[in-house]
Amino acid sequence: MAHVVDVITETPRATTLVFDVPGRPGHRAGQHVDVRLTAADAYQAQRSYSIASAPDVGTRVELTIVRIDDGEVSPYLTGDRHPGDRIELRGPIGGYFVWGPAQGGPLLLVAAAPVSLR
């Protein structure tokens, strides 16, 4: 279980939640965590969010979340969250696409954006 320690309004639609996660194993760049919300009637919703904080920040994890107006989870997370709130986090997850200097090189990074054919 993670505790919210800070809420930072980045833009009218984006919020960074800073969590303290006791016993956190650390993470590598490119990994994500799953956020699971459980309602009073036991209904659960889970979403994955990329970790926005640097890997070497101790027990802190930052998630920057963009509110999707008709979303099921993001309006809750970007809404009325306060320091002390508890949120269930699982992770870090993902290691298949994480490169580290010990793996050597050369390294070629390629990125692309979708192109409309119209």
Automatic annotation (TrEMBL):
Membrane-crossing residue ranges in chain numbering: none
Domain FAD-binding FR-type: start-end pairs: 1-99
Cofactor names: FAD
Keywords: 2Fe-2S, Iron, Iron-sulfur, Metal-binding
Pfam families attached to this UniProt entry: FAD_binding_6 (PF00970)
Coiled-coil stretches: none
Metal-binding is among the record's keywords: yes
Domain of life: Bacteria
Protein name: FAD-binding oxidoreductase
Species: Geodermatophilus maliterrae
